[in-house]
Fold each of these.
Amino acid sequence: MDGPRQRTVKMSVLGFLLCVSLYPSFSHGRVVGKDEAGFAECNSFFPGRAPPEGFTEPFHVKICQRYKGEPRFATLYSTRDKIPLYSAFKYAGAARSGAAESWLLEPQIDDPENEQHEMVLEADAVGTLANLGANQALTSDYVGSGYERGLLNPSSLNKEDFQMATYTLTNAVPLRPSLSKTWHSDVGRVVEQALVPHCSKKDQLYLLAGAIPSSVQVKGKVSVPESLWLAACCDAPEGWSLGVVKKGNDESSLTDLTVGELEKQLLGGLDLFKGSCGEDNKGNEKMEAVLQAVSQIRSGEQVGTNDNQEATDSGLVRKVVGIIATPFIKLLELLIYLLVELVKFTFYFLWLVIKRIGNTVLGGVYSLWNGTVSYLKAISMVLISIPYDVGRVITNIFLGFLGIIRDVSVITYRILRIPVGFVFHLASFPYYSICAIPSVVKDMATGIGGTFSLAIDATASILHGFYYVASHIAKRFVPKGSSGD
């Protein structure tokens, strides 16, 4: 693990690269998909970034245990047994004080559509997650059962936030209180007193803590482990590997064995560490020292009481060499880290460019496809409407022709209804009209002559009347004269 000072230097130099490294394509969430390689960003908890092989059941779920935005350890969880099969972590030193137990759970195991990207408090998940408890154990499964939540990755072997992250129900198995106490004590002593002192590169000490499920279940849901086991790999020059098993029905048992023997006990075809991780170096001094320390722990003796001066001097020389070599090793690690991050950034940049180009091309193809579909749709509508319009025109022509026939029929009928005599009279009207003109002219002349004659007669009668009146007056009022007068 990187120290705080080294992490500060790395972040100051490559902050933007680390931000890019959290890109969603590389498992931003905690539950790792079936199609992703290993445990995604939690592959760093395995030697050679290669997780164990052979766990292939469909109910095995890979979890990258994240807390406060950082990967803390990796877990392979069995949704059938509701317990972890193993948790992978690296020893970074024990915490100064124990952290308060605030139990967490993994939301995406029960609710794959949930957008929570890391473990959440169990109390906060109640009522907010769908199918809560369908695929993982809950605290309520332990209440009143006589079992407690035993941690595979012990909190005592972690610091600060790493310690808080171990209190997740996906890292817990049902253990009797006494077995849980001895397991954590034995594992802590084995790691701190037997493994860490004999691994030349402390940050390359990889640990797998696991459980073998039994047929016994708590409340018919959570499987009780048949055995607990620990596998260690010191991936360094003069490296070594070791397995330790504690039986569930024997709290005092603590058996050391090779990793190969442990793999056979777990499941045929397993490969816990890539390349056997120093298993061929069974006879080297470090391996013998580790086995002796484990034996002393098993027998209850204090580890490291050998007064052999030669061994002490040898250890002192190794410490001095380690102190001198540590800055150069750290510098080399930093350079390798910079190179790896540069390569990652290059690949991320290329991936981003390819993604942008792909999106542009797909967008163009999509637009072209939409235009083609719209054009074909319009043409289809026109082609479909042509027979309809032609049929409508033919229908209108036929109806017009029928209208003409109807009008001709009506006219013919009306003509046939006219009387024949009327037709003859109508036809002879011009003849009679012309022949009547002389008689009409004659009658007009006679009338005009009679009118003038009548006017003359009237005038004469009026004048005669005037004469008669005048003569009568004259006879009455003019004196009669002599006959001579």
Amino acid sequence: MFLSNNACLVPTSFWLTGIPGLESLHIWLSIPFSSMYLVAVVGNITILTVVKVERSLHQPMYFFLCMLAVIDLVLSTSTMPKLLAIFWFGAHNIDLHACLTQMFFIHCFATVESGIFLAMAFDRYVAICDPLHHTSVLTPTMVGRLGLAALLRGILYIGPLPLIIRLRLSLYRTQIIAHSYCEHMAVVTLACGDTTVNNLYGMGIGFLVLILDSLAITASYVMIFRAVMGLATPEARLKTLGTCSCHICAILVFYIPIAVSSLTHRFGHQVPPHIHILLANFYLLIPPILNPVVYAVRTKQIRERLLHILKAEAQPK
């Protein structure tokens, strides 16, 4: 229920449309989305299990990979169950507090994931540019502190986002959100009041996270490539770069969909709404799906352990 005030509303809940313009295809869209969500969940749980049981993988890079797996599970689970409920059961309604909570988890853990990629870039920098001190610098305690710092940064950056909406924006033109989840700008654009603070804060956080993190990661890889080019043989260069290939692929998988989604949202005014929403969902699904695949294919220890588990399961008992 909601109250009216001069053509504006004080909603106690919102109505998520799902994929606007494709409502008639929701039941069919549920097939690829549910399949991708299942792959993401199974893939990331598999990575967590393999790293836990394989002691040779108890190294900084794989600890960070486990953090990525947990974050990807949180990100995909923050949106996909509700989206599938909309597709299957027409469960469009979402409580105001549930909407703000979903917004917090989505934006917070996307920020945390960016922080983990930054920590992984630092790990690769130390491993290649100062290999003798890698184990003494990237201790399990230090890895834990870096992960905690990324989490606290995400909470610090994103925590005010739903609070500003709750405290400053109480009146809305409609309770219908033309989106499949409670994305920050999708909610803010419905408000009747002045949204300048909300817009500036959202853009500021986007700059701090996407721009500064990507610049720091780029700087670390510039120094890494300089160190690699100083190696004596091409074989040594390729082997050293090979240790960074998984991280580079994971970074591209994370940042490219976000960049494309953000650019189309802000500048692609001629792009149909359903394309915006599909892109927004894909950037929350693609990294959770591809990260386990990239690391399983490119990491010998993970690949061998997976093959060992599959062979053990295939043997008759």
